[in-house]
Prior knowledge:
It contains 9 helices and no strands. With about 210 residues, it is mainly α.
Amino acid sequence: MSLAADRPRTDGPARGRPRSEAVERAIIEGVMKLLEDGVPFAELSIERVARTAGVGKATIYRRWAGKEELFVDVVRAAEPPEPELPGTSMRDDLVVLLDSLRLRGLAHRSSAILHNVHAQIKSSPKLWEAYHTGVILPRRDLGLEVLRRGRRDGELRTDVDLELANDMFVGPILVRSVMRPDADLPEDLAERIVDTVLAGLRPPDATRP
Length: 209
């Protein structure tokens, strides 16, 4: 299972020598192999990862501060890539964002390794904090930024609580993905959610799609 090539690059200061894509792929794939072999996160030491990937521990530490940060990048590699927003309207951006969430829900259903990874994330407070900071918060911030632009451009009422509105858009897919794993996640779900919620949040004279 090789998914590291699809991992999105993260911004931030470089650590040590210049990054090598091939080395990073080998490390990510080394962690994937250990997870596929059933190794729990508690036993996933940097030394063991280095041995599996065929690199030195220092090579890993030049790229990740510890195994929590490395594990978060493994999750990014296993999940569908982050979407590129069209920027044509708030509605269009919201549909793309929600559809990427729907695709992640489908991936979690079909991938035993992702199911295992997320179970381990939830069982480790330190790992959950790293995942929440590195993955969940940036995604939420992106959704809030889309809503801010929509309010600025007159696509959203000025009195709308953006934090609450964001939850209203994201909530239905999270419910179906997490709390109702047997629920359908059809291709048009994102559009239906966005249009249903926007029907109550648009200014009265806003143009409808």
